[in-house]
Structures are given as structure tokens and as C-alpha cells.
Amino acid sequence: MTKKASKSYSYFLRISVLCLLFASCANEAKQSLVMHTENTIALDADDTQDSIKLKASHVVPTINQYDALKDEFIAFVHFGPNTFSRMEWGSGMEDPAIFNLQNLDTDQWCKAMKDAGMKKVIITAKHHDGFVLWQSRYTKHGVMSSPYKNGEGDVLKELSESCNEYGIKLGVYLSPADLFQIENADGLYGNLSEYTKRTIPREIEGRPFENNTTFEFEVDDYNEYFLNQLFELLTEYGPIDEVWFDGAHPKRKGNQQYKYRDWKRLITKLAPNAVVFGKEGTRWCGNEAGATRDTEWNVVPYEDDPRTMNLFADITDEDVGSLEKLAAGKFLHYQPAETNTSIREGWFYRDDTDQKVRTTDDVFDIYERSVGGNSIFLLNIPPNREGKFSDQDVQVLKETGQRIKETYGVNLLEGAKGPKELLDNDEETNLVLQGQQPMVELTLPKATKINRFLIQENVKISGERVSKHALDAWIDGTWKEVAIATNIGYKRILRFPEVTTTKLRLRILEIRYIPVLQNVSAHYFESRPPQLQFTRNSIGEVSIVPKMSDFGWNPNGENAGANLNKGMQIFYTTDGQEPTAESSLFIEPFLFGEGELKAIAIKNEEKGSVASAKFGISKISWELVSTSSAQEKHAANLLFDEDPKTYWKSQLKSKNQFVILDLVKRIVIKSFAYTPPNSTADGMIQKGTIFSSNDGENWTIQDTFIFGNLINDPTQRMHKFKQSFSTRFVKLQADEIAGNGNSAAIAELDFYMQ
């Protein structure tokens, strides 16, 4: 028998045995494993789709990964020189004195995190600038050279003590990139030093370690420096539950390489409970916006064995773990995603005025989508220059925690009849679902209102099995499907319009292998109809949706108000009358010209507040005639594209700044509206003049206008002309820019006939 034939025969025999075992499952109680479960399983060249599915369903998390999943909602803290310089990335050459911290209240941080329901915090012990927040033996570029406590302060120590007091786990972010070590003349990063055998930690006279563990590594100067600092962090600040590495590199030098396998050996020995982010432990979700995938598989493919890899690329595709993706790899590996974003616009604190903060709706929506979508929610809260979380951030955290507790702290299946393994709130019990169409039926003690349903697979023991499922509710004597989704994994939260029911039925529609469920629960999120907003696109279609947050940093595209209010209906009027449940029902965008729209959201017979908007004449056929000047990416046609996020902006110091528009036909104008850009305070037109013309050559001054307080309140401003006039061409001339600016900017321009 040839080697190839022998391999094929062996493979056929193995699959045959598996099939026999699978067949016996119908007759043997709760048989769910037919091969060893592993954190990483190799694929063979002759694996079929069925064998890949079988292997994928036996890939399970490590203990550390499973604990990270159970943490669910965790905090990031970006703190350092950037907090005081108001920069996102420092240069590395900042004077440590810039870290002018006078007070620090890490107890306040931990209390706010505890109130939010967070279980762990990761702090930027060293960001890309190389400044360290602890009393390191191996550098003077850090808190030891700052004014804080006359150089005796230790931010990490204070946070560690607060974490211990409040029961919060501690993680550390240690940036592999280090601009101080790059820019400093004596810096170690990329200095082309030789790789030699060295002892970690390197002894420093007068500062011995209590932990006597030592390591021998063959490393260069920078890897030795990095390992020495990692040793400090992992031995002197209590248990470390996560080590966070990212791939950001503001600058490189000397072809510096990282010896992650050495780092891992040290972490494994000194912090055995720590999960490592950015390597084979946990992975980046692929964005910093809080966006989530509809299907987030935690079993992902690798071309090389992740257990021996040194470099890990970010996984950013929309599809990360489908069967097609798995088949293209050579190793299947369990690796949960962390959905990371910031509560503020940016990672570091800048101010409490211009730096916007996410709403509670937004944070709670991300929580439900991320934790309820088989990932971990990592939310950054940057401390301010007083060493505290700002009041607005604290309030959002508190309100988010209240919502989580009120919604998920009450299980509406308490006392329900059904499989006890799913209702006993014990992660050590599970239910193996047999049959061609597996399902679970639950009978509630009484008719109950629900709009959330939570499901968990027993991923710790059996991996991820379910690839599609649906939930039915018993309504008016029949089953009605209320939600459908794809995979489940560690946790899936189904959100749907409120129903009142006495029975629920979970149907498993597609599987990779025999499904094993660990827990189900039902919940109710108490909400009220949201505020509404109107938008009109470039072809004149109007949409009415829950009001979006004006949080402009890394928008995730999700409408939190819509997500949290499944089952809401929107009614509107076009004649200025107050809308009611008898008014027109908004179903899809509709064409609308000039006039006033009013709308109201109604949910479960409860009415929200009435929203209204006044639209100017349609801009579909408008044409740009000319403009004084325009900056790149800010052309004048953007001032009538019906998108207030885009804007025209003239060149700097240009004289006689103006735009001329052709309205295509003569119309009678009574007023106009100016919308300034809200992403920049530069260019807001404080004073100006409006001209009219019927031929585009001969101009008549119609009126001047003055808009005040634009910089502090960059909202749309209306101006009613002293008298109406008929015109085809309009010219707006900027006469004075707010804040003594030297360029003009317009996000949208509207004209009204009424």
C-alpha cells in the first residue's frame, strides 16, 4: 500500500468510526464529543466540509479565554502625557514634567466601573510615547520624573490597590512601540544591538525583587528592556488577568523585531491567569467604533499554528469563521474577539466641552450587540487632568449599569417548566439536543412581557455548534416566530418587539454538530419611544428615524434608538398638524419638497415627544455656478448635498469669499437657513450678504444677516428677509467669520418660499 493510499485509508477509517459514534448518539444519552477537544486543531489536506465542521465543533477556549468571555464588560484606561498635551499619540520626546498630575482618585475609577457592571480594567502602563506610569527600575522616562508626588507616585500601584478594594480584575497595556526609545540618542529600540544570552530580570542595585524567578533569553537590547519591564508589571502589582498588545507603530527604526515567544514564556510563568490580547489569546474586533458582526464565530482559521507564531495580523474581514473561511486555513483556533471603543471622542481625555461623550443608549446598545454577539465589550474611559473620570462619563456608566441590572438581573423564566439543565443557572450542567430538528420548549408560570432572550452554548466543554436558530412565542393560540439569528457561541442576546406569552420555543435550524446548550433566560428591557430626527437625501427622499447621537468619532453606523426599541412605529404629518396613531405610518423613505414635517414614535401605546423639521425647496436640480475658492475635499457642491457632515470651505486668507448657485428656475424666496459645520469651529459665517440675479450677471443686494454664538452653538440658523424676492440665481457672500477666522464654511444652505 502506498503512503498516500495508507493515509486515505486511515482517514476513511477514522471518519467511519466517527460516523458510527454519531449514529449511536441517537441511542446513547447525551453523547456530544467524538474526538478530543483542543484549543487548536490542525486540518488535513483531505479534510472534507463535514470533517471540518466536526473539527470546528471540538475547538474550545482555554481556561483563561473562557474567564475572559465571562468578564463580558471590561474597561480600558488611556492615561499619560497625552492627557495633558491633548494629543492622541505623543512624540516620545515630551518632558515628563508635562504629566502635571496633582491628584489621583483610582477609587473613583473603580467605583464607576463597578457601577457599570465592569469586571476588569486594562491601563496603558506604557503607551507608544514610552512614558511609564509605574516606578520602573529600567527608565527615568515616566512618572518618577514627573511632578506627581515629587516623582514618588505610582499610578499602577494605586490602581492595583483600588482594584483589590472593589473586586475589579487588573490588566496592563504595554506598548511594543516606544517612541522615546526610538527618538532618544541612547534609546534601545532599533539600535542594532547583538542578540546575546541575558538574564531576566536584570538586577538593579538597591531594588531587589521579592519574586526570585529568573529567565534566560537570547535577546537584543530592546527585547531585554521590554522583558524587564514586563517582569515588573507581572510580579509587583498583584494578579494580572490580561496583557494587552496592539500592532500600532507610529514609527519604526533599525528593523527592530519583537520576540513575542519569549514574552509569552514569561507571561505564562508569572501571570498564569492572564489572557493575551493581540496574540493567540483574544483578538481585535477589527474597528474602534463599537461595530459588531452579525455572526461572530470565535473559531477562526490560521495558515500557521498560532501556538508557535510570533507575529499576528489583525482579523478585520466581515466573515471570520464561516465554513468557507475555515476550509482555507490549516489550523482551527479558538480566539474570542474584543469589541473595543471609547466613551469619548478619542482615546485620551481632551476637554469637557468639545470632546463629546457617548449616550447611555449608545453604550447599552453596544453592550447588547457585543456581549450578546459572542464577544467581549472593552470600553475606554479616559481620566481627566484632575486624575478622575469626568462627571458625564460617570453618569453614563452608572445609567448603563442600571440598565444592565434592571434588564438582565431579572430572569423571567424563574419558575418556568422546561429542561432543568438550562434553567438551573449552573454552568456545569448542559443539555445535549438530539434529533433532526432539535428544539426546546419552555412554559412560563404566567403570561409575561418579554423582548429579550438570552442563549448560551456550553463552549467550555463542547465548543461552538449552532449556526442558525429561531425563537417562537405562543400568541393567540399559535406559535409566532419573533426572532432569528445565526450562531450562538458563549452568549447570544435576541432582541425583538415586546410580546406577552406563556410559552417560548427555541428552534435550532442549522448546526455544525450536536448542539449542547448551557443556559437560556428571558428578559424585558423597559424603554420609551425615542426622540426622532428627519433626514433628506440628495434625490429628495425623507427618512424619519430615532435621533442619532452626535458622537462623531469613529461612527459605527448603528442607530441605538432603533436597536433598543424593536416594535416601535413612527407616524407623521406633512401639513403641520400634530401626528397621532391615525396619521401616516412611516414605512420607507418618501419624496418631500418644501414644508414642515411632524412625527411621533409610538411603542406599546406609549407616545414619545413630537419632532418637527422645516425643509426648504428641493435641491435636486441645483447647480453650482462659481465660488471664490475651495479647499481640497471641501468643494462647494457639498453645501447642497443634503448631508450636514460634509461642507464647503474656502481657501485660507482668500478675499471676497462667496458662492453662487443656480436654482434652475425663478422662485420667490422669503427666508434662508445656514447650517455651519459641527466638526470644526473654523469658518463659521458670522456676518454676510445675500444677492439675487435673474441672469447670473447683474446682481441686487437683497439683505444682510448676522448669526451669533456659532462657535459655542454650531446649529442651523434661520434668517427671514426684510421682504420676499423672486430670483433664479443666489449669491452668498461672507463678510465676517466667527473667531476672526480667515476662511468661510457652509455645511448646508436652504431657501424657503413660505
Topology:
Layout: H1 3-24, E1 40-42, H2 49-56, H3 63-71, E2 73-77, H4 81-85, H5 106-116, E3 120-126, H6 155-166, E4 169-174, H7 179-183, E5 196-200, E6 215-219, H8 221-235, E7 242-244, H9 260-270, E8 275-277, E9 283-284, E10 299-302, H10 323-327, E11 331-334, E12 337-342, H11 360-371, E13 376-380, H12 391-408, H13 420-423, E14 431-432, E15 439-457, H14 459-462, E16 466-475, E17 478-485, E18 492-511, E19 516-523, E20 532-536, E21 541-546, H15 560-564, E22 569-573, E23 584-585, E24 590-591, E25 595-603, E26 606-607, E27 611-615, E28 623-627, E29 648-649, E30 658-675, E31 685-693, E32 700-706, E33 717-737, E34 745-746, E35 748-752
Parallel strand pairs: 2-3, 2-13, 3-4, 4-7, 7-8, 9-12, 12-13
Antiparallel strand pairs: 1-11, 5-6, 10-11, 14-19, 15-18, 15-19, 16-17, 16-18, 20-21, 21-24, 22-23, 22-25, 25-26, 25-27, 28-30, 29-34, 30-33, 30-35, 31-32, 31-33
Organism: Maribacter orientalis
EC number: 3.2.1.51
Protein name: alpha-L-fucosidase
> How many DSSP-defined strands?
35
How many distinct domains?
Answer: 4
- What count of helical segments does DSSP give? 15
Q: Give the helix level as a range of percent.
A: 10-25%
Q: What are the low-pLDDT stretches, counting only 5+ consecutive residues below 50?
A: 1-30
The end-to-end distance, rounded to whole angstroms, is 91 Å
Spatial strand order of the main sheet: 8-7-4-3-2-13-12-9
